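User: Please predict the structure of the protein below. I'd like the answer in structure-token form so I can feed it into my own downstream comparison script.

Assistant: Understood. Taking the following sequence of 176 residues as input:
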Amino acid sequence: MPRLTRLTPDTAVGASRDLLADLVSRHGRVGDMVSTMAHSPAVLGGYLQLSRAMGRAKLDRRISERISIAVQALQGCGLCLEAHVSAARALGVDDEEIERAHAGTSAEPAIVAIIDLALRIYREPTSITDDQIDALREHGYSDRAIADVVGVVALNVLTGAFNLLAGLTPGSGTGA
């Protein structure tokens, strides 16, 4: 059961009202997470800006979705996990790779390396080594793609933690 109420452009105030009104006018509706985030214009605005920025990331979406699955499997946000599994499938990631991502791995060594980096960023960023970054470069990742992993992890921490706080779960509403 949700812990926080959904807001609409009519019930939100200030900057949140403006953000929601803009989103509704462009998309027709917003999901539970966004309408609930509107309680904090800072959180909603930050989420929207980071989400837009990550849309321009150099990291391949099929890889970033597997990273998101690995992070959400640890963080425990079922709503996010469901959304990222669905997105991965839509991008052509097969069920075996999705299951591997749940376990923080892949059949492809280059993807194992980038998921491992993401999980270190999530769990213990001080454990990242020069050798690990060098290995990512040897797998063909650019510095920009490596840096983008921080953004993918940060966006997942934000959305997952928010959904868990707000009590948003699969089937509790309309999603993001």
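That's the full token string. The chain has a mean pLDDT of 95.
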